[in-house]
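Hey, quick one: can you model this chain's 3D structure?
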Amino acid sequence: MGFIRTFHGDIPKEELGFTYSHEHIVCRPSFWQVRGEDDLLLDDKDKSMKDVLDFKHHGGQAIVDATAVDYGRDVRAVEEISRETGIRIVGTAGFNKSFLWDAPIKEELRPILGGYRTYAEWIDAKSINELADFVIREVENGLEGTPFKAGQVKFGTGYNRITPLEEKTLRAVARAHHETKAPIHSHTEVGTMALEQLELLKSEGVDLSYLSLGHMDRNPDPYYHEQIASSGAYLSFDGIGKIKYAPESTRIALILELVRKGYEDQILISGDTARKTYYKHYDYGPGLEYIIAKWVPRFVDEAGRNGFDGQKLIEKFFISNPANCFSFKK
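Sure thing. Here's the predicted structure for all 330 residues.
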């Protein structure tokens, strides 16, 4: 048995329903704000909500919002979208990756974080256990002082490296996981450093079946994916729709190869839709409806041509696997 922690309370995992496992709904990352990168600012609640409603119209039921404190999340706006649309949303405690941490901390967060100027200053000044305590509070009390609790904990690492501060946040998140039993999500930059993340988590005594690793499709290497899957962790293929990185045929082939090897229960699918140009109602992109309305039928067709039951796999990737992955195990 297990439960899912959503913005509006804990639910039995069986009630989660059709789920996108890694999205961003409303956020204003200060790293991108100070650089004038408007495309990376999802700063209009009403436009974001229209895309969430498109997802709901096609049968979507839940979204994991993977926006951590250092990526400019808007907790109140996301909670309102959840309440007004009826879509269950799982929030995220923890951290992203180090290159974002030179950004200024928004004014309203400084009293909560201790008055530091940047995220790097804050993370550097605090001990691993102090950072873990911050993550624990966001899971058990609420995100950024709100009553809306996080349903997963997150850390991230950079491209082909793990910095000392990233290792610090990884260990803090691992310790917060032990205290709360919250599932863990990791950001991998371009799908790198996953195996190194696994070793660090094992050194903290983490059961890797609680872990999902993001951006696995950015590193389209079947051997690498098998090494990760054999650890028991979940692999998140969350770049669906991003053709500039790879065609959908590549992603589908990678997924089906894992299924052939017996890892169908460890696959998650999403879009990591974090730009205005990916959203339909901001800038005419494919939108949150793309995966459920267009990619799913294509996957079912391709899976069938390869001798698999595509509908059964879709149920796993979007319903039973998220329900298991994002559970707090009692």
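One thing worth noting: The chain has a mean pLDDT of 97.
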